[in-house]
Amino acid sequence: MPDDLELPPGNYVLDTHAIFALLQKEAGYEIVASLIERAADDVTLFLSIINFGEIAYITQREQGKDRSAQILADVRRLPIALYESTETRVLASANIKAQYAVSYADAFAIALAQELGATLVSGDPEMKSIEPLVKICWIR
Fold first, then answer.
1. Is 14 inside a domain boundary?
2. Domain holding 70: CATH number?
3. DSSP class of residue 71?
4. Strand, coil or helix: 63
5. With a threshold of 0.85, does the pTM exceed it?
6. Binned average pLDDT, 10 residues per bin, the chain of 140 residues
């Protein structure tokens, strides 16, 4: 992580892009790794169950069912709280999806970040359009 990037303590919602960056050691993974290291200290991490499902289907499609199961087990071991989808969160996500050019799964990450007053962690360029909605920690 660059020395000039100081991430404040607080709540962070990881999107699917951030999780894949970490798992595949892509650009920006150091930022996600740093947040995970700090999770026992001054950072709380969250992941929407919808994004967890997105991780499942992408890895199954690209690497097979067994590898997908292993990756999901790896993600479960991380200090990240999985958040279920409530009716309120589903409707908030639908509202975001209706107004912005983001994927439905991304809309859940955005809605969760709004609900928790958290910073969204992403490197997905499609998230640029939602900058007025939530604070974003860009990993790319």
1. yes
2. 3.40.50.1010
3. H
4. helix
5. yes
6. 68 98 95 95 97 98 98 98 97 98 97 98 96 95
